[in-house]
């Protein structure tokens, strides 16, 4: 079996071990440590790397990973699951997307990979994590959320050759219908793109909404889809569920709000849009209708602002472009 040590956790065949990885220091000198769980089977197989809360307020994936670990029997496992359910613990503690410690650099961990041992706190954190990922991972599944509980979409690294093919295999086994074969020139600094460029098949799940915007059903469904990925990779016994054709996109568009106001959305994630489709309704402070938000693109809703208050410059809608069934 593979010898794997990450921080204070050392894999043991047939066991689930827990530990911590130090990724830096707080300003009071205490260590920044993130939780690491390694579940190793008794038979050979790949090492599947799972992580959540790269963005600190995207908890649904953390709960999916926790659910998998609670229900995983290492005696039935081939290969190894390495799980880091809470990656950006600095942001997580503040219940916000980004680290509170970078006044200038932004602190978005998912733009910092592969990291820099001499960079900002978040860049050093990325370096400490990614050195382990690069050394051990045979595949990466990275969990995120968007804005509302009905979010269900995914991206895989559309890398040349086998890396892209294996990434697509993971996408089909997870089987979220809205899927972007992500062009390799977007999302620079994300764990997914960095891993794929290093030859590691990689996939991002966008499940549920940030903060409290997700439910138990999404967690259980996501966990079962993750088990299906593990069956596809030969890590668990059982037939692989075929999710059928998926809807692929050429790319996505983020549309930002250019106005403020009270806002209620009129579409749900997965809905088809035409150019000109009404996305939502604005109201003034007296409750009077005060204009509609209009889609500038045709496509599929990947995510939409949850409301009820909109400010200029917030993400109004996230649209998958040029949908096709594949
Ligand atoms: Zn995210």
Q: Tally the structural domains.
A: 2
Distance between the termini: 37 Å
- Work out the strand percent: 25-35%
Bound molecules: zinc ion
β-strand number? 20
- Element pattern in H and E: EEEEEHEHHEEHEHEHEEEEEEEEEE
Low-confidence stretches: none
- CATH fold group of the largest domain: Aminopeptidase
Output the strand order for the largest sheet. 3-4-6-5-7-10-8-9-11-20
Write the CATH homologous superfamily of the largest domain: Zn peptidases
Structure commentary:
With 326 residues, this protein is α+β, with helices and mostly antiparallel strands. It folds into 2 domains: 241 residues, 3-Layer(aba) Sandwich (Aminopeptidase); 77 residues, RNA polymerase II/Efflux pump adaptor protein, barrel-sandwich hybrid domain (OB fold (Dihydrolipoamide Acetyltransferase, E2P)), CATH 2.40.50. The protein has 6 helices and 20 strands. β8, α4 and β9 form a beta-alpha-beta unit. The longest helix has 17 residues. The protein is globular and about 65 Å long. Bound molecules: zinc ion. The site of zinc ion has 4 residues, from loops.
Topology (elements, then pairings):
Layout: E1 5-6, E2 9-10, E3 15-25, E4 31-40, E5 43-51, H1 60-71, E6 78-84, H2 89-93, H3 121-136, E7 139-146, E8 152-157, H4 161-174, E9 178-182, H5 191-197, E10 202-209, H6 216-232, E11 247-248, E12 251-256, E13 261-265, E14 272-273, E15 278-283, E16 289-294, E17 299-304, E18 309-310, E19 315-321, E20 324-325
Parallel strand pairs: 5-6, 5-7, 7-10, 8-9, 9-11
Antiparallel strand pairs: 1-2, 3-4, 4-6, 8-10, 11-20, 12-19, 13-15, 13-18, 14-17, 15-16, 17-19
Helix pairs in contact: 1-6, 4-6
The protein binds zinc ion.
Zinc ion is lined by residues 54-55, 58, 144.
